[in-house]
Amino acid sequence: MNHPQFYRGQHVVILGLARSGVAVAKLFHEFGAIVTVNDKKELHLCPEAEELTALGISVICGGHPSDLIDERVQLVVKNPGIPYAIEPIQRAAELQIEVVTEVEVAYLVCQAPIIGITGSNGKTTTTTWIGLMLEAGGLKPIVAGNIGRALTEAALEAQPDNMLVAELSSFQLKGTGAFRPRIACLLNLYETHLDYHGTMDDYIESKAKLFANQTADDTAVLNWDDPVCRRIAAQVKSSVLPFSIQEELSFGLYVLPSYANHDVPAAERSLVYGDRRGVLHNILAVSELGIPGTFNVENALAAASTAITLGVPIPMIAQVLRDFRGVEHRLEHVATKNGVVFYNNSKATNATATIKTIESFEERDIILIAGGLDRGADYSELLPVFKERVKGLVAIGQTKEKITHIAKLAGMSRVKTVDTANDVQDVVDQAVREAVAMAKDGDVILLSPACASWDMFPSYEVRGSMFKQSVHNL
Predict the structure, then answer these.
(1) Does 119 belong to an annotated binding site?
(2) Is position 123 annotated in a ligand binding site?
(3) How far, in Å, CA of 299 to CA of 294, rounded?
(4) Which domain of life does the UniProt lineage start with (predicted)?
(5) pTM of the complete model
């Protein structure tokens, strides 16, 4: 797309109100475009509409009118979660009208260098860590994107001496064209969101757009343990900085001794950086990290890679890694009651995230609460950790029968399902009580659903908050 100033006096359609839609609508309105915002929700469910209408922006709620997209429209900016199959997007394609997401708009108005972070799992933790590291190094970060704040709003605020640190989803990246981050960080790629993308190839291609416009002056931070990341590394034009927990690299950030050496106790492993001169820099011991789990070791390496690229001193990076205690709903310690430890990992919306979380509790028996939106997966990948690490299961949501089936294949004897026809908070309360009935002193009760929340809850945050409320009310 062109710079938003190009659309002065021209028709721009924004699909989806939400946070990003409101920010984009205001931006184009300020640049003089004729803006129409459309949301399929009824008007009384769109509180943002009043603010936009007061500015003179046309807002249409309650569905997608057949004449919304016509030959006058020059650009469509869609909410990332809206599927491409809906009629207005299809009509735009017929008329060869460009369709983008907020990321593209933000890039074109942003004066600051952008750091883009994506991956199937770990984005928010890594993005937060990077923001804290850059702040410690005096680099004036602004953290935005999928993490909370609208990217266009942050981009308009950013000055040349800022760094815009952006958490980006595949949904957001799919709708980009010119977007070019100074540093592009890809954490991992697992099978997820296929109900949106249709195929794994489309999902990978959307994530890879993070690197599409980078040049030799830019940096690609890539997980060397992920085969798709290695494939992408062979195609990018930017300078590749790899990180690994499984391989001791000649250049990059890694764990020493690596996790491939299974005989080494965790307490003896360290995060290190091997620079291009062959000098090895110790960052800190794995045991010093403020949050547990091998997946957080990967996140720490990715964040440190980005900070080192930007010149943040290693002692400052190490201190941030020590002090950080995690993001809400991501392996969040809730309470310890009668010797049982409760963790909220509601953000685990796919099986891989749940597996990695379970594996992080090396010496504890786990009672797992799982289940949620059915996207067609069979959850067979859970079978090994169910056999080896999970003592009991409480299943909820649309996938409860699928997940209990895997638990029974694993030979698990403590398996319960909760009737989800009741009030949602009652469902969560009952699930927690069932888990407590299975637990003994020293066990972990873990909410790690392996599924999205939208069958029962408006978001994973609501799901996690209800779990915490249930625990605190015991």
Answers:
(1) yes
(2) yes
(3) 9
(4) Bacteria
(5) 0.81
